[in-house]
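Structure tokens please, single chain.
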Amino acid sequence: KATELERRSRANGSAFENSNSNGGIIYSTFGNVWKTCLILYHERRKG
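Here you go.
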């Protein structure tokens, strides 16, 4: 069971690393959306 858990965690880790090495497409997309939301929020507070 321990080896099974280790295998799973390793697989998850490598998948995470792969997404990062691929430019972190999901992360960067989320970051852009987050920035846009912040900008809109600040614009609203000004107006």
